[in-house]
Amino acid sequence: MTKAELKNLKQLQQKKYRRLTQSFVVEGWKSITEFLKAGFVPQKIWAVNLPGTLSSSIKTSVNLVPMRMLKQASFLKHPKDAIAVFKMPSAKKIPAKGFILALDDLQDPGNLGTIIRTADWFGFKHIVCSENTVDCYNPKVVQATMGSLAHVNLYYTNLPKYLQTVNMPVYGAFLQGENLFKMSLPKSAIVVVGNEGNGIKPQTSAFINTKITIPKAPGAQAESLNASVASAIIMQEFFRRLY
Amino acid sequence: MTKAELKNLKQLQQKKYRRLTQSFVVEGWKSITEFLKAGFVPQKIWAVNLPGTLSSSIKTSVNLVPMRMLKQASFLKHPKDAIAVFKMPSAKKIPAKGFILALDDLQDPGNLGTIIRTADWFGFKHIVCSENTVDCYNPKVVQATMGSLAHVNLYYTNLPKYLQTVNMPVYGAFLQGENLFKMSLPKSAIVVVGNEGNGIKPQTSAFINTKITIPKAPGAQAESLNASVASAIIMQEFFRRLY
User: What's CA B129's distance to the chain center, in Å?
Assistant: First the structure.
C-alpha cells in the first residue's frame, strides 16, 4: 500500500471525497464478499489472506499486505482482515410499487446501518433517503449493515418532492396515529420514518396520507422508540401481511 | 463543583467504581427528571438551570454551576444542562410470572440502552442479564435509554443457573426455530437473546425449551438481525398477543 493509497483511504472517510471519487470503503472479507457477489466493482483490495471462495480473477487483483498496514488504514477500532475500495453503483430509478421505506433526515450512522440490515432480512430492497440523511457510504453505516448494503438500494433525493409526485399511498410514523398492528395495509406503500430528535419535518409531513403509530403499553412512560427499532417494527408488520 | 467531585464523576465512568460506590451518573434534566419521578435518590445534582417542574426540596439541593463546568465533567460529546449522581436501587427479586427478556452476554451499550427503551415502551419491566452483559449503568447505556432505565428493572445474575431453577417456559432466539409470528405464545415466558457475535452460549442454551426464529424473506441474504432489533420484534410479538 503506497502513501498515496493510504491517504486516499483516509480521505474516503469524508462524504465530500466519496462523492467526488464515486467510491467507498468496505472492511473485512465477510462484507467485501457480499459486495463482490452482488456485482459491485472493486477498485482495489488489500488483505492479509485470500479466502478460498474467491474467484481467480479477484484473487489475482488482491494486494497481500501485512496486518500492521491494514491497521494503519482501517477506520475500525478492531481492524479486519481486508480493506476494499468499491465503485458506487450508478443511480437507479425508484420503483413505482412494492414496499418503500423513506427516511427523513435520519442522522445516526448506526441507526441507518441497522435499518439497511433489517430491510435486507425482510426482503425490502428500496430505501429512499432525504438529502440530509446520513450518507449510506459513511464507514460507520457500512460497518453496521454487516454486508447488507450490498443487497439494498438507497436513493438520496428531495423527499417532499418525491412524495408529491409518487403514485402510491404514503404513510408516516408518528406518536399519534392509527394502530399499526390493527390497520389494513396495502402491499405497495411508502412509509416515512423521521429524524431521531425531531421526527418528520412539516414539509415532508404535508405529503403523508395516513399517520401510523406503534402502539404503546397502557401507562408506559417511554416517550418514543429508537428510529431503527421503529423502522424494524414497521417492516416486520408489512412483511407479515405478505405471507 | 470541587476537584474531588469532578474526579468522582470521571471515575463513575468505570464499572468497578460504580459497583464500589453503588452509584451512577445521569446527564440532562429530561432523563434526571425521569429518575426523580421514579423515586431514585439523588446524591448530588449540578445544573445550569432549574426546571419549573422540580419539587422545592429537590430545587434547594441542586448546585447551580456554569456550563463550562458541566462540559468538563460530562461524558457526552454534546454535554447537557445537568449532571446527577444517583444511588443504585437495592436488588429486587425477579418476578415469577409475566414476560421477562433475558440477555446472554450482550456487549454493545447502545444495544442494551435501546432494548431498555423498547421494553419500557411495550410495558415489559423486567430484564435479566447474564453477568457478562454490559453494565446498565454504563454512561452509554444510560444515555441510550432516554430515561427508560428509570422504569425498567435489570437483574444481573448467573443466567444458566437462573434458567435452571425458574418455573416458566424458556424461549430462545435462534436462526433456526419456530416461526415467532405464527406460534402460540404464553403470557408468562422468559425469552433469551444472545450476544451480538456469538448468539446464545451452550451453557444457557441447555435450559431453553423452545427455539424461536424471526422469519426472513425467501431468498434474503442478511445473516442475522441486530440484537436490539431482534429483541424489539420479540417484544412487540408478546405485546400484541396481550391485547
Answer: 9
